[in-house]
Design goal:
The complex is a heterodimer of chains A (130) and B (153). By secondary structure, chain A is mostly helical. Chain A has 6 helices and 2 strands. In chain A, 58% of the residues lie in helices and 3% in strands. The longest helix of chain A has 27 residues. Chain A is globular and about 50 Å long. The mean pLDDT of chain A is 90. The longest helix of chain B is centred in the middle third of the chain and has 45 residues. The chains are: A mainly alpha (130), B mainly alpha (153). The interface between A and B is medium-sized, with 17 and 18 residues.
């Protein structure tokens, strides 16, 4: 799985194949983690939120996975799973800033992502719990 | 000391300077993104400067009352009692930021222990109250974000 599957990491040239870049978080895992990660990402364009049913139908068509394997509940499950990992990384980065082990505006800037990610994480986790 | 312009006003003025005078003169895309990120961080900091002490104090009071209520309903929970004792020992007298932050951190630990206790003990109304406290915290964080979105994405 890619580990950071989002529009900023997809190059769409005028000619030739679509390319996926930035594989630093790639690892062996369930590919639906990428699907969950992308599903609520606040990065445009979010084609999942625009129409989950149609998006998942196309995903199943391309991957050969079944509706039991890929549906809105499994997406939410893998979203929570993936976000728990991402939030852990964000908290580690923030802790490094707080204890002077890291510097740079990028990490400070990305701290904002914790708020947005946590809010979405809690919302989806509550839906799953119910 | 000079109290006006406030820290918030000064930081927002720096933001205006960056966006109106510095950014338009830059041609390097990496530098442009860097300036936008700095401007966002300054804007976040302006909101924090204006409100963070009050928000932390308000949340701390709410959390302490909540954790006490949970402890009252589920007495003898070691993790919660330890967290409450640490919160009680945290500095309360002054408004210096280090003291407020330390107390707020201890309140966060107490909230965590209280929520875990409420869930484990099946205290549904207190679980709901805990979620409301989390929502308040989330609301403050959203205000600090000041319209943030991932730059360059």
């Amino acid at each position: 799985m890619h580990g950071d599957a989002q529009p900023a990491n997809i190059l769409v040239p005028d000619h030739g194949p679509v390319l996926m870049i930035d594989w630093e978080f790639a690892r062996i895992g369930d590919p639906r983690e990428d699907l969950g990660y992308y599903s609520h990402l606040p990065v445009p364009p979010n084609l999942y939120e625009a129409g989950p049913a149609g998006f998942l139908a196309r995903y199943r068509e391309r991957t050969g996975l079944t509706e039991e394997q890929v549906n809105e509940d499994t997406v939410s499950y893998f979203y929570v799973l993936g976000m728990a990992r991402l939030l852990g990384q964000m908290f580690d980065a923030t802790d490094a800033l707080a204890h002077d082990r890291s510097r740079g505006v990028m990490a400070t800037y990305m701290m904002n992502g914790i708020s947005a990610t946590t809010r979405a994480f809690v919302e989806v986790a509550r839906q799953l719990a119910h | 000391m000079l109290s006006r312009p406030t820290t918030e006003q000064i930081l927002l003025d720096c933001c205006r300077e960056l966006m109106t005078n510095v950014l338009p003169s830059l041609t390097d895309a990496t530098a442009q993104v860097s300036v936008i990120m700095v401007e966002t961080v300054l804007r976040n900091t302006a909101v924090r400067a204006a409100h963070e002490v009050a928000w932390m104090r308000e949340e701390t009071a709410e959390i302490e009352a909540y954790a006490d209520a949970v402890a009252g309903q589920a007495p003898g929970t070691a993790s919660l009692e330890t967290a409450l004792a640490a919160l009680a020992a945290a500095p309360r007298d002054g408004l210096h930021l280090d003291d407020v932050v330390e107390t707020y951190c201890q309140a966060g630990n107490a909230l965590s222990a209280a929520l875990e206790t409420a869930v484990a003990s099946g205290l549904a109304p207190l679980v709901q109250r805990g979620e409301e406290i989390l929502d308040v915290r989330s609301g403050h964080e959203t205000e600090v974000m000041a319209g943030w979105s991932p730059t360059g994405r």
